[in-house]
What does this fold into?
Amino acid sequence: MGENSNDLLLCTETKNLCFDDLDSLANDDQQIQGKSKVLNFDYGRSVALIDLLPCLSEESFSVMMEREKVFLPKDDYLKRLRIGDLDLNHRREAVNWIWKAHVHYGFGELSFCLSINYLDRFLSLYELPRGKIWTIQLLAVACLSLAVKMEEINVPLTVDLQVGEPKFLFEGKTIQRMELLVLSTLRWRMQAYTPCTFIDYFMRKMNLDEFPSMRLVSRSIQLILSIMKGIDFLEFRSSEIAADRVMKCFELIQDLTLVSGTSATAAAAAAAATSVPQTPNGVLEAACLSYKSGEGTVLSCQNAKRRKLDTNIIS
It folds into this structure.
């Protein structure tokens, strides 16, 4: 990447670091770190999740299907992660921190999905300076900051997003520079389509056009979140992931209903999110992933193969 493209990351006083001295940064920002520890407000949305999802007509869905590729990482991104051309551990660290901050502030699920979308798209387009491990943390903060500005009603100060004892703390002006770099790299296409965007459409398809219940929406989104810490989901479009997770949700609820003779409960949803299910159409068999709620780690299925989505559900 040329020198000009790196300028947004650099201070006016130096051309090789975002800060004159990372050691002095830690000392100078002790007040910021202390402030972050005290602030623990509930910044979550006051609007019901089901009211935030778009209600798509057939026409809107067709248009979005044609445009969703614009909001995906470059085609070679997954391959580069798998072969080690891009550091998978750096991505994992960024995703794990975003999740911690997401939980800390009680942000909505849509913000988390959007943060990961920005992160993956940026990493597929822009090569961060090698040997400067702080850059991935700065990127994670910037992606989360942009996502919550897009999706949340109550947004904390940018510097206060840095929770969970991160390795580095950044000044507000530095985070803003990184935000500008992300915005320009993604060509200001920030209203991205994520799997959550298509949830309502597939819910109605599976539910005979009836209005989906909050419980069904919540369970489906839990299943979406359960795969996003891994990378195999990147093999598929957002609409494919949404269709598969909705079908898995209906399958799990039907199975539990047959076994117990009652409707699915909150315990069933927790089991669904922490299990490693076999998907009905094998769409995400290659991304059969789940994270342990206590550790935030990711499990992946072995010998998984990519299969195409049953075209019936999106035809």
